[in-house]
Amino acid sequence: MDDIELHRLFFERLKRVDMVSNLTETDIKLFIEFGIIDEDGNILIEKPPPKYYNSVVKNAIDNYRVNHRQKYNERARNYYKKRRKDEAWRLAHNERCRGYNKKYRDKQKQAKIKIHDEVVDL
Q1: Is the pTM of this model over 0.90?
Q2: d(C-alpha 66, C-alpha 55), whole Å
Q3: 3-class DSSP state for residue 43?
Q4: Which site among 9, 15, 50, 58 is 20 to 30 Å from 25 CA-CA?
Q5: Residues 47-83: tens digit of each pLDDT
C-alpha cells in the first residue's frame, strides 16, 4: 500500500467516525506506524483540498446563471439584503470596501503622476 492510498484510507475512515479517537485500535496502530498520526492523536499529514469545486461544477453554475439570470440575480440580492442586516458583517464589508477603494485611488494617483512625469520629460 503506497502513501497516497494510505492517506486516502485515513481520511475516508476519519470521515466516518469524525474523530481520531473513535478509530479502531487496528487503524490507530496502522496510522501511527506509517506516520500519519502520532500517539496523542494529532494528524501529521496535510489534509487534501476538497475536490467538489472543479471545472464541471463551475460550468454548471455559469450555465444556470446564464439560463436563469433573473432568478439568480434576485437570489443574490436577497442574500445581500439579509447579510446587510448583520451588523458585524456590514462593518467588515465596509472596511473591506474602504481598503479596496483606497487601493484603487492610490493606483489612479500613481497613473496620473506617471503621465505627468512623462509629459514633463518631453
Answers
A1: no
A2: 16
A3: strand
A4: 50
A5: 777 677 788 889 999 999 999 999 999 999 999 999 9
